[in-house]
Every structure is written in structure tokens, then in C-alpha cells.
Amino acid sequence: MKSLVRKTSIAVALIVVAGTTGALAAPCMKITLTGTQGGPPVFKGQAGAGTLVQFGEDENQCGAVKLQFDAGRGTTQRLSEIGVPVGKLNAIFLTHMHSDHTEGMTDLMQLRWHFNSAGPKVDLIVSEDAKSPRGHVLSGRKFAEHIGDALINSGEMAQRLAENPKRKAGGPADLINVMTFPPAGEPTVVWSSGDVKVSAINSRHVPGHASFRVDTPAGSVVIGGDAGNDKPKPPRETSTSEQVERLAQGADVIVHSTIHPVMGPDKESGFPPPIYFRQSTATDLGAMAKRTGAGHLMLTHLIPPMGAARQGPYPIPGGALNEAAYKSAVQDGGFTGNTIVGTDLVTLQLPAK
Ligand SMILES: [Zn+2]
Question: How remote is the CA of residue 338 from the centroid of ligand 1, in Å?
């Protein structure tokens, strides 16, 4: 009884404080594309796929909670450009185990081991081990367990530990708190902290692929990853994922990997049809964003990159694409909201300033 009284008086005190300052702190979120490269090729220094979602209020630049979704090549560099230390990330979520979405995490965790060995650990949220039809297993858990192996086996870590024994003896894997979830066809909460809730849904690309949704008091964002339709090729209604569409119902923002229709097998690029068909086209994403009522569609993991004459070895029919070419593909799908054709570090803030 005594504690109840105490809590009540604290609540009253908080209301009084808010009243005297004139307004309660306004919640806000920021969505930053930390890398927009589509697939394993390199092009003009673009970083590999990744999205940083931050939530907070004006006083902390919307940055009280920092969540990284995928961590492709160069993620650490991009985070450093916006002043986000890797030691401040609360959690990392991986959509799938393809190297272009994960290879930056090795570097990121090594840096954390150097300067944040005292903790805290970072949560790593990945799908449970997933077996492909051919029998090989994709494992985010093993990826985390072995993240420092090359440098452990080269002797590098032993040498550094001898200089500074305060570092974690087991290497960067000791700083990862692996949280696996079973792939589910309906949105399932996989991580939460205070007002921030992250849900996942299983979607098709490679076994274990997941798409995520972040809900906060300032808004909501879906990160589709490389999701495509469960039907691996036409005839089908759309290239986009029905699961992602369910996850995105009512969400303010959709961040999604995309491929431009110019790479389709009906054109002259020679791009392998199975790889084309397992991505969502910009046009179909426009149609999906219209159906779910999103205000913003952020295209990332662009195949091909803007300005590139080729995607890896495959030439772009008609020459390099620009922003307008992606925007018009989205408009062909009927979307009339705000389309952002992703470049590294482009940022969207909610509510708009
Ligand atoms: Zn990819």
C-alpha cells in the first residue's frame, strides 16, 4: 500500500513538471539508409545494405534507441559519418544470411570488441537455423558464434589480448546476445524496449528470410529486406511478398530492396531470370505501398545502382538509370506518396520537421 501511494505521488509530480514546462517531450523517429548497394557488386563506394532506425525525442536527436537492420559492407563507415558509435547500437536484425547483408557486421563487432568489451552486449535478432531444399543450413546463430574466427586463428586476437586483457577473451562473439525466432507466416513480436516494438514475418528470398516492422509512438516502418513473392516466377499477380504486405498494413514507411523492370528477362540485359524474379520490382512495390496506405516508400538495394552502366557483368539496356527512372517505375504501380530513391545516408524523420 505504501509503495502504491509513493508511485501515485511521483505521477502527480511528473504531470506538474510537464505542466510548468508547457509541453511533454515529443517522440520522434529517424530512418537512415546506411547502405544502398544491391547485391555483392561494388559501385562508387556505396555501402552494402542496411537501415538504421532510431527513436527518441528532440532532446536526444530521436536517438535514445538505435536499431540496425542488416549490416552490409561499409556499415561502420556510414555510421561514423552520422556520429553513431557502433557501441551505441542496441540491437542488430538480419533479414537473411547473404553476405551483402551481413559482411559489415564482422568489422562492426571487431570495433565493438576493441572499445566496448566492457559491454553491454548487442542483441542479434535472426531467424532460427533454416534448411534449404538442397539440404544446406543457413544459420545466423553460427554466423555470430564464428564472427571473430579469422582473427582468432591468425593469432591477432591473442596478441591484442596480451596487450589489454580487459578485452573479452572469446573475441567479439562474446559481445553478441543471439536471439533466434522461428519463421512465422504472421507478424510476431521478436524484440521490444519501452515504447519500441519490433515484429518479424517469414518472407521468401532464401530459407530463413525475414522482414521486420518497427512500431513506435512516432510512427512505424517496415524493412522488407530482399523479400519476393512465394511463387518464384510468373504467372503470379505480383513480385512482392504477401507476407510483407500483411506486415505493412497501416505502416507509415516501407523500406524495401528493389530491382528495376529494365533488368527483366523480356529485355536485353542477360540478367539471370531466377535472381530477377526473387526480388520485388519498383513498379510492384509502388502498387503494394498504395494498397497498404504507406505515406513513404524508400527504395534501397537498387539493382542496378543509379548511374551504373552495368550490374556486375550485366549491361543495363538503354544505359544507366537515374532517380527519375526509378520514380517513374514506382508511379507505374500507382503510388502517389513520397518515393525516396535510396542513396547512402538519406534520412527520413517522423513526424516531419
Ligand atoms: Zn541482397
Answer: 24
Domain CATH code at residue 37? 3.60.15.10
Q: Is the model's pLDDT at 12 over the cut of 80?
A: no
Cell 504507406 found at: 294
Q: Write down the pLDDT at residue 2.
A: 37
Q: What is the pLDDT of residues 104-132, one digit of tens each?
A: 999 999 999 999 999 999 999 999 999 99
Domain coverage including residue 143: 26-350
8 A C-beta contact, residue 188 and residue 246: no
Q: If you measure from the C-alpha of residue 39 to the centroid of ligand 1, how many angstroms do you get, rounded to a whole number?
A: 5
Q: Find the DSSP H helices in 126-201.
A: 140-145, 149-153, 156-163
How far apart are the CA of 98 and the centre of ligand 1, in A?
6
Residue 166 resides in a domain: yes
Helix (H) or strand (E) holding 273: helix 273-277
Q: What is the pLDDT of residue 1?
A: 34
Residue 48 CA to ligand 1 centre (angstroms): 8
> For residue 232, what are the contacts with CB-CB under 8 A and spacing of at least 6?
204, 274, 277, 278
**Helical axes 323-332 vs 282-292, angle rounded to 10°:** 50
* Residue 353 confidence class, pLDDT cut points 50, 70, 90: confident
Instruction: Please report whether residue 16 resides in a domain.
Output: no
Asked if residue 7 belongs to a domain, the reply is: no
Q: Please count the structural domains in the chain.
A: 1
Determine the Cα angle at 143 with ends 124 and 84, to 5°.
45
Distance from the CA of 317 to the center of ligand 1, in angstroms? 22
pLDDT for residue 183: 85
Sequence-separated (6 or more) residues with CB below 8 Å from residue 154: none
Distance 66 CA to ligand 1 centre (A): 22
Distance in Å, CA 144 to ligand 1 centroid: 19
CA of 21 to the centre of ligand 1 (A): 47
Tell which wins on pLDDT, 22 or 60.
60
Maximal CA-CA distance, the chain: 76
